[in-house]
UniProtKB/TrEMBL annotation:
Name the record gives this protein: DUF2807 domain-containing protein
InterPro entries listed in its UniProt record: DUF2807 (IPR021255)
Assigned keywords, A-Z: Signal
UniProt source species: Aquirufa rosea
Domain Putative auto-transporter adhesin head GIN: 36-222
Region forming the signal peptide: 1-22
Pfam families linked: DUF2807
Gene3D superfamilies with a match to the protein in the record: 2.160.20.120
């Protein structure tokens, strides 16, 4: 009986320590937002963007970090930053992970920078969508359906895309990587430079302008127009 009681006390203490450790990460805050169709986000945020009938923004993370967020709508662009503490005692403080969940009826332009991690889903029957990933940002675009999709990647950014589009335009530089073989495009235009790697699937046409040590891989049997220089290469994959 004494052993069981001691075990119960130990388990209770462990549970309390887990709760105490986890509770700072569970703080949440909702922001009142509306009227935006563009995103400009960076830092090391974990971001989820979903299509919805209404606008919403919620942040989750350590309380001091969430409370330190500054939300601004510049024209039709939503920006989320940390408040300027350049001249304060907490300048350069160690930030913990903050998660942002955004709902919006339409997403036209999105720019992600820094070391953010992004998931976008639910955007179908769109006319045109433009995405820019820079720095060490990483993204996943799930089941995108649009007439035209423009993607620009630089730095060490990485992007995975699935879905279906009419025209796909890709501009990849640096050590960026696009995995787009799960995205079915009718026509594709790729510009690749540096050590970038682009993988796509194209049905009808594929135009490639590649330089440096860039690599372009493609699925399908499109009509190909290519201009390669340096050690750039293009190859078909199954």
């Amino acid at each position: 009986m004494k052993t069981k009681f001691s075990l119960f006390i130990l388990l209770g203490a462990l549970l309390m320590s887990v709760v105490a450790w986890a509770s700072p990460e569970d703080f949440s805050k909702k922001f009142k937002v509306s009227g935006f169709q563009n995103l400009d986000l960076g830092h090391a945020f974990e971001i989820k963007v979903v299509k919805g009938n209404t606008y919403s923004l919620a942040a989750y993370g350590r309380q001091e970090d969430v409370e330190d967020l500054e939300v601004d709508i510049d024209g039709s662009t939503l920006k989320v930053l940390y408040k300027d503490r350049s001249w304060g005692f907490n300048w350069g403080k160690n930030r913990k992970k903050v998660r942002l969940v955004i709902s919006m009826p339409r997403l036209a332009n999105a720019e992600f920078s820094g070391a953010c991690r992004v998931e976008v889903e639910g955007f179908t029957n769109e006319e045109q969508m433009n995405f820019v990933f820079t720095g060490a940002s990483k993204g996943q675009l799930h089941q995108v359906n649009a007439d035209k999709l423009n993607v620009e990647l630089s730095g060490a950014s990485r992007l995975n895309i699935s879905g279906r589009v009419g025209k796909l335009n890709v501009d990849a530089s640096g050590a960026s990587h696009l995995e787009g073989t799960d995205l079915l495009a009718r026509d594709t235009d790729v510009e690749a430079s540096g050590a970038s790697h682009v993988s796509i699937q194209s049905q009808k046409t594929l135009r490639v302008d590649a330089s440096g040590a860039s690599k372009v891989s493609y699925k399908g049997v499109p009509n190909i127009s290519k201009d390669l220089s340096g050690a750039a290469s293009i190859n078909q994959v199954n």
